[in-house]
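User: Hi! I'm working on a homework problem where we have to compare a predicted structure to a textbook description. Could you give me the structure for the chain below?
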Amino acid sequence: MPTLNTDWWNYGGITRSVGLVVVPAVFVRDYRLALVSLEGREVAGSVQLDGARGGEAVSVALPELGVRETVRADAQGRAPFRFRVPAAKLWSPQHPQLYRLEITSGGDTLGDRVGLRMITTRGRQLLLNGEPLFLRGISVHEEYSADGGGRVRDATQARQLLEWAKSLEANFVRLTHYPHNEHMTRLADEMGLLVWSEIPVYWTIDWTNEATYRNAEAQLQAMIGRDHNRASVIVWSLANETPVSEARNRFLSRLAARARALDDSRLLSAAMEKHYREDDPDVAVVEDPLAELVDLLSFNQYIGWYDGSLDKIDRVRWQIGYDKPVFISEFGADAKQGLHGDAGAIWTEEYQAELYRRTLRMLGRIEGFAGTSPRILTDFRSPRRPLAGVQDGYNRKGLMSEKGVPKKAFFVLRDYYRDRAARAGSR
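Assistant: Happy to help. Predicted structure tokens:
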């Protein structure tokens, strides 16, 4: 959305490949397919034809599961379907099972690979396919600097970022702060990484401008429209760090309602903020009208970096009055890779590692703690970060340098996630 301030580099021009697709007069524009019942292994969805007049036959097939259904399009070109797949293996990070999907109508055939899974919540618990889930996450920007910088240009670079995330023992990536290239979500399907996808409603925008809202809604619709069949995507995020106001609340409430109408099979969230109680500065409070509208209660916090010293991390207690899973969407500290010193010396790898140790202990005391995605996988370019000799135009919160060299905090988080995975049976 239009804003004067961002903390990432907005690369100009066409940064993704462009293709021209030639189709017949009546063609398969889109489809939706989702698991709607765990017990009955029931799948439901619809196919959307362009150019249809009604009555066209549409074949929906999952050959590996022995499924082939024929349905008819209505006058608007929509052909709903519903069937059972009792032999289907469900998609999960441990077993990212994908099945070949073939949709045919007249002279047009659309092929895809789909996973079947269900994401839900129960009180303060996250459930994937009915089983408890802890999100061992990391935030990722769509930037690949290892060979000179710039946006991720192809699937090879996208895969490298996701392989680095996997090497952290992560099962989840938060794709900040805009929808990433389709390479990322398709590879996440294949590699078994859960995904948070977000639109750039960021910091302070003009909440009262209807054109700004239409821009946000158009980006939301495009994001959901592209990735609503990706099993990896479990969270649609509406915004990041937006201060509470009446105008902001109205804006995001409209977006939330639109997201629900577009896709009710995934969780809705947004990265919110926290504040402290006036009578006790060691009690951090998460209180936001938006929390009533989302499924996953998410917020960013930087205690020990922008907010107090390392010692403050040990003192803070949390007040979160919502019966929903709690997800810490950002925490972290800057460190220049190769800069070493005492654990109390900022910008050093040792300081960043110590902040991670203390923060992970603190987060473990939050009731309903369901996961985190620290900021961030690798250092990335930012116009707000000019400190010579340390930042040099980069946000240095990466667990790896812009060249992919791990810092000490990388191994702190990896060991924590490895332990969480072992205790949870690798969920």
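For your comparison, note the following. The helical segments are 155-167, 182-191, 210-227, 246-262, 310-315, 349-363, 408-423. The chain has a mean pLDDT of 96. Good luck with the assignment!
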